[in-house]
Amino acid sequence: MNKPKPLKRFWPTTGLALVSGMRTMASISALSSHLAKTPSPFLTGSPLGFMQKKYVAIILKALTLAEMAGDKLPDAPDRIEKPGLIGRGLAGALTGAALYKSRNGNAFAGAIVGSTIAVAATYGSYYLRKKVVHSSDVNDPTIGTLEDILALHTANLML
């Protein structure tokens, strides 16, 4: 099989990792749904092969919806708090590793790219959302809903 060009892995991973910074589960869910519909032979027999399972894609969609609903609650923790930051970094790592591996690349390289960008995007999206809420007459849950839409559309565009 031909090896895809590195940019066919890097840019989609970058986009999905940006999404991980906004919504932890959205990138993993989008990638799993994509892989369940169009499995990669490079993931078959790999520890990352579970990402291609249809039941995993369904579970991840449910978790994404739960995360989006939880984000609107008044007592939802800030994404830059340690547990959220770690979760987003891990989501970026998993997404990057699976995407790189699915395109005949190095899973470790994908994990590094994904986690690094996800952590940076966590801070960027947090401060951007705070600024938009502060400088507009729009409440935080509404801005959060717009962020949900942006995250989902971005994730789907990357695949």
Q: What would you note in describing this structure?
A:
This protein is mainly α. The chain has one domain. The protein has 6 helices and no strands. Helix 2 runs parallel beside helix 4 and helix 2 runs parallel beside helix 6. The radius of gyration is 16 Å and the shape is globular.
Radius of gyration: 16 Å
- The number of strands is 0
Q: Give start-end ranges of low-pLDDT stretches.
A: none
Biggest sheet record: none
How many domains make up the coordinates? Answer: 1
Give the SSE layout.
Layout: H1 7-22, H2 24-37, H3 54-71, H4 82-102, H5 107-135, H6 140-157
Summarize the structure.
Helix content is 73%, strand content 0%. It has one domain. The chain is built from 6 helices and no strands.
Labels describing this entry:
about 75% helix, about 160 residues, globular, single chain
